Amino acid sequence: MRVLPLLFVLAVAGPALAQRGHNTNAPIDFGADHIELQDKANRALLSGNVSVKQSEMNLTAARMTVAYTGQVVGGNPQVSRLDASGGVTVRRPDQTARSSYAIYDLNKRVITMLGAVTLTQGGNTINGGRLTINLDTGRAVIDGSSTGSAGAPSGATTTRGGRVTGTFSVPDRR
Question: Cβ(108)–Cβ(89) under 8 Å?
Answer without folding.
Answer: no
